[in-house]
């Protein structure tokens, strides 16, 4: 600025003199002032160049800051908002909606079984599915709505709505569920996708005496989404206060379950298996029980699904099998031990080796062990299941198909997989007396077993009427409350000691009336 002022001041005096001198009129300008003018011109040129460089640097810095802000606030894969930015954006939207008399709905969206899609088709396919889902959801959202990818396979929408038109949020949830469920086509491949959706409203907070914020809305919608998952997926639920108590219980249960495994709170119980023709005890099925200091004695129907979901079922099962093998080693050599295997364990290609290692550690004969797998295992990876079954059978372990009749096993699978036994689902056996349909189903399964050369075990034998019905149909091994409820190891050992059926005793035929008199 100073150089420009000096240029104007000296230039106004020197330049006219210089022009007249060049025309041959008058004296030349003063040399000192001319030098000062040239210096001013040089300074002005330098300043202009510096100004241009500084302007470019500022523009680049602003662009870099804008890029950094976008990277911090948006998801690079889908271009949606991310978890970091959705909360402040939601709070701002809620304030704007409050001024207009509107409310806000928070919609939590989770892609069902996304890990399976990734594992089966690769991460590039998973990324394409995520982008397709984001695009489909975005196309359905109204103006002023927000869409964020929270990470992994979770998305969140924040939608303004009029309090009297909340049914539009239900319609939107239904549209999102239907739109995402359309197959995602990638070249010649078609990927089936479904979502579970949780909904929460800003005017239905747990505590209406205070204003709900974005984090609480996210929490409530997440709880509702979990309920949708639990109810079977591919659906949506609104948040309700009791859900939070249930989720808190579930969280406490998971924490106690993890600690209980390390503390040895899970113990094997044993249910008798009887040969109907002779009344002789053939063996026992091991059933898990959780002796929790907080929850009491918990059955497997409660903790097994939780253990499978949080990924600890393999550790839990191996600990129980290890203890059961040690317990069964004290029984008479003719008695077998049956253990149930989770479908998740059969996905482990090293499962057979782990089980054989447990047999070696316990010095337990493989011929006395029977593994029970359910029909659902056959639909996930028949090739791997066949490999595991063959590996175990080669070592002498017997394999039975559990809960037969409740699933969808084909005759081809039964013929191709080397099973040693079929176990009829208890729901058919228990209701046999007086129920012609169930009796017909049991008869059909019995004929099938005879045709395939497979012995049959009937579960759920609870009274003498069921025994009479079964004896009309053929030869069975039976188990159920008629012969006693499942017992812990010590009581089982005491029962066998009385019958002379410990390792140093002899086998003993037990009649149902004797079993009833000694049942726990």
UniProtKB/TrEMBL annotation:
Domain GGDEF: residue ranges: 102-241
Alphabetized CDD domains for the sequence: EAL (cd01948), GGDEF (cd01949)
Domain spans labelled EAL: 250-500
InterPro entries found in the cross-reference section: Biofilm_reg_signaling (IPR052155), EAL_dom (IPR001633), EAL_sf (IPR035919), GGDEF_dom (IPR000160), Nucleotide_cyclase (IPR029787), Rev_trsase/Diguanyl_cyclase (IPR043128)
Pfam families found in the cross-reference section: EAL, GGDEF
Protein name: EAL domain-containing protein
Organism: Novosphingobium flavum
